[in-house]
């Protein structure tokens, strides 16, 4: 590609060349992708989690197409905004005030702005190795960076953003003992971009309680995990009392939409002038139509069946590899998980960093791609399943994973 920088618009989309060829996708439907040669692949990346229903769900496509015929982008309020907000708030509990934006990064940025305005404080805290968007301050301390390792006692800080060790109860206490100006904690229910590291029992609840005791607010970053475990927020399933949540990806079936939801008393900062928000394309009619149609579909889906199907896949592949003397473990959930070339899954970022094997991850991607399965080719990569992944496609994936891993 001569004109597109790097051949991609987002760095995560890069695929390695195999035998002189790199696929360029031309069509997507359900659990499948087709490249420019007409070759079909089983997809496990699913728009980095954005297509939970599967690619191009007909009801969503129809809703978007009809709305595009009616209106694309009026400058003034339109009826679909309130309807989409109402459908979303029905599923987010006390977080029943909604602002639509265009990306998860924007939603997190808006949440931090709201928390600072509501508390009058400066500092916001995120997990070391967590991913909360690509804007400068929150991109600080991402997985693979030097600050994320937090080797000493000093706590890294950049532009009012502090880092916190995930699953470390003592570090929570140390944080609040040392700082009195914390506006909010950004809480990821699962450390997805560090390899789907699961929360320790009671950790997220403890963190939220300590934050509230200190006068700080709690922001659930659910751009990735929201609506992936049930038709609602993962943090609510895990017992987290949050003040805000950011959602995206799964709520729009691949359309360009995200949202900030929050408790009314905190979202009031946008009404009384303490915080500003804007965005020409935020909440435009086609994406609101997509949200309405997507949420209606998600409410009808059998989450238990999909989660069980994914967990059975993980267990099957792990058991087959171990039976042949190949160390393998898995972290995450049935709809999003990471495979590790070691006997036990990491429980925190230092363990994940020690377990990470870039060459193994790349070799697995290549082996699966030769079997016509597309995966994330990088370390800490995730496997996603959608409601379009039926038992036959899951069995195909399980067999391919087992054979590929044992051949590495």
Automatic annotation (TrEMBL):
InterPro entries recorded: Aminotrans_3, Aminotrans_3_PPA_site, PyrdxlP-dep_Trfase, PyrdxlP-dep_Trfase_major, PyrdxlP-dep_Trfase_small
One Pfam family per UniProt: Aminotran_3
Keywords: Aminotransferase, Pyridoxal phosphate, Transferase
Cofactors demanded by this protein: pyridoxal 5'-phosphate
Gene3D superfamilies according to UniProt: Aspartate Aminotransferase, domain 1 (3.90.1150.10), Type I PLP-dependent aspartate aminotransferase-like (Major domain) (3.40.640.10)
A GO molecular-function annotation: transaminase activity
Alphabetized PROSITE patterns for the sequence: AA_TRANSFER_CLASS_3
Family label: Belongs to the class-III pyridoxal-phosphate-dependent aminotransferase family.
PANTHER family, per the entry: GLUTAMATE-1-SEMIALDEHYDE 2,1-AMINOMUTASE, GLUTAMATE-1-SEMIALDEHYDE 2,1-AMINOMUTASE 1, CHLOROPLASTIC-RELATED
Listed name of the protein: Aminotransferase class III-fold pyridoxal phosphate-dependent enzyme
């Amino acid at each position: 590609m001569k004109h597109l920088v790097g051949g991609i618009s987002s760095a995560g989309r890069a695929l390695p060349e195999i035998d002189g060829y790199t696929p360029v996708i031309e069509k997507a439907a359900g659990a499948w992708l087709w490249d420019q040669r007409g070759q079909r692949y089983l997809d496990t990346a699913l728009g980095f989690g954005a297509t939970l229903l599967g690619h191009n769900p007909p009801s969503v496509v129809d809703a978007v197409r009809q709305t595009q015929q009616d209106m694309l982008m009026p400058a003034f309020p339109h009826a679909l905004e309130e309807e989409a907000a109402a459908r979303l708030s029905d599923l987010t509990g006390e977080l029943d005030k909604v602002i639509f934006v265009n990306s998860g990064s924007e939603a997190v940025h808006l949440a931090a702005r709201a928390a600072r305005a509501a508390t009058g404080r400066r500092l916001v805290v995120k997990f070391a190795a967590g991913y909360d968007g690509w804007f400068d301050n929150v991109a600080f301390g991402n997985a693979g960076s030097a600050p994320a390792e937090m080797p000493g006692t000093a706590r890294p800080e950049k532009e009012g953003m502090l880092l916190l060790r995930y699953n470390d109860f003592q570090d929570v206490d140390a944080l609040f003992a040392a700082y009195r100006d914390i506006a909010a904690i950004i809480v990821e229910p699962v450390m997805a971009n560090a390899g789907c590291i699961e929360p320790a029992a009671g950790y997220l609840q403890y963190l939220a309680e300590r934050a509230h005791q200190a006068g700080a607010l709690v922001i659930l970053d659910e751009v990735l995990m929201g609506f992936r475990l049930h038709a609602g927020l993962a943090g609510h399933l895990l017992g987290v009392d949050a003040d805000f949540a950011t959602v995206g990806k799964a709520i729009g079936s691949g359309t360009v939409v995200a949202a900030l939801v929050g408790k009314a008393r905190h979202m009031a900062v946008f009404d009384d002038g303490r915080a500003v928000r804007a965005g020409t394309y935020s909440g435009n009619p086609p994406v609101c139509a997509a949200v309405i149609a997507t949420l209606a579909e998600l409410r009808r889906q059998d989450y238990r069946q999909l989660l069980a199907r994914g967990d059975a896949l993980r267990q099957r592949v792990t058991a087959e590899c171990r039976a042949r003397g190949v160390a393998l473990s898995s972290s995450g959930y049935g709809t999003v998980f990471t495979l590790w070339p070691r006997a036990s899954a990491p429980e925190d970022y230092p363990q994940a960093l020690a377990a990470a094997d870039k060459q193994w991850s790349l070799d697995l991607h290549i082996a699966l791609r030769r079997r016509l399965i597309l995966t994330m080719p990088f370390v800490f990569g995730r496997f996603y399943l959608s409601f379009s992944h039926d038992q036959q496609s899951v069995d195909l994936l399980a067999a391919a994973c087992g054979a590929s891993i044992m051949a590495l």
